């Protein structure tokens, strides 16, 4: 369903932020996380906040989101990914991909 697709886009976007050294705290809502990250990652702020709003609406709205909402979420994700790529080096991103710490759950 589209609700799950929007959530998957959100999760994927959060993963793409790892090279910046940010992670969502368990107590943070999606919009709170987006605002916090947006302070340090200004180029990603608008897209991240937009995606956070879509994800909240998808999760708490009465109906399954329309295809257009999924497309908008994907567009916001793409904007965040581009911003992260612009703010990091290829080496930063490769180090993050090779870092085993995210695989270890506490």
How would you describe the overall organization of this protein?
The protein is 71% helix and 0% strand. The protein has 5 helices and no strands. The chain has helices at 2-16, 30-40, 42-60, 67-87, 90-98. Helix 3 runs antiparallel to helix 4. The longest helix is centred in the C-terminal third of the chain and has 21 residues, at 67-87. The radius of gyration is 14 Å and the shape is globular.
Structure characteristics:
106 residues; globular
Helix content: over 70%
What is Rg? 14 Å
Number of strands: 0
Spans of 5+ residues with little confidence (pLDDT < 50)?
none
Tally of helical runs: 5
Indicate the topology:
Blueprint: H1 2-16, H2 30-40, H3 42-60, H4 67-87, H5 90-98
Compact overview of the structure:
The protein is an all-alpha fold and 106 residues long. It has helices at 2-16, 30-40, 42-60, 67-87, 90-98. The chain starts with a helix and ends in an 8-residue tail after the last helix.
